[in-house]
Design a protein that fits this description.
binds 2'-O-acetyl adenosine-5-diphosphoribose, SIR2/SIRT2 'Small Domain', 2 domains, alpha/beta, elongated, 11 helices, six-stranded parallel β-sheet, 248 residues, Rossmann fold, three-stranded antiparallel β-sheet
Length: 248
Amino acid sequence: MGSVRTEAGLEAAARRLRDADRVLALTGAGVSAESGVPTFRGPEGLWRQFRPEDLATPEAFERDPRLVWEWYAWRRERIAPLEPNAAHRALAALESRTVEFLLATQNVDGLHAVAGNRRLVELHGSLWRVRCTGCRKLREDRRVPLGDLPPRCACGAVLRPDVVWFGEALPEGAVGAALKAAQTAEVVLVVGTSALVYPAAALPQIAQGHGAFVVEVNPEETALTASADVSLRGRAAELVPALVEAGQ
Ligand code: OAD
């Protein structure tokens, strides 16, 4: 049963985190909100301004690759100057003190890696990688601005962002690693996600089915709140460092 933020809830969660050898962290757009990255849902969310079916589906890209790229180029420009916040840094500290740790993020902004997390899987891909629709070659691409849109591969074919669009499968390796971690984790820390998009949203439940203790950090109630063992109501940049420091 989820409990809202209380000192007791924070302490119980911090104690579990401190005592655990195997921890899975699952993050969503909310962990980057205080760095200035827009979330998807909610009053200021990207999906209030744009329709996902116009911009984040393979069909949209086939119809109008330039329009889709304009949106991704805009997001790259917006995110490029941003920096990790205290929540990202606390998750990096948690990784360094935990025997078996995995951070599974739904974010494509790359900020967890900048903060120092290495045991990291990007379930929805990365804004900073491109994939050739012709030769399939994958490569890092940090150019901002990108130049002529849509960008092209040396082979001549159009490049696409290496992100997961609606209707597409998630990268197998990333999902496999996240599932494995969910099956063995003692504690799952879920930060800043509305927990509405599957399969990422299933990870806490899978872990709970294997006996894990699930801690949620979010200023709002979410689809996960009722089933979380502790649900802490507040901002990631305040509560994640508090959790990690209290557990030392
Ligand atoms: P959402 O935009 O659905 O949810 C963001 C969550 O962050 C909400 O629950 C907010 O309450 C919470 N939040 C806002 N500010 C916060 C803060 N300062 N600290 C902590 N939490 C905060 O984003 P995701 O759950 O990440 O997929 O969305 C999942 C997927 O849906 C995305 O990866 C994207 C989107 O469509 C694809 O593009 C495939």
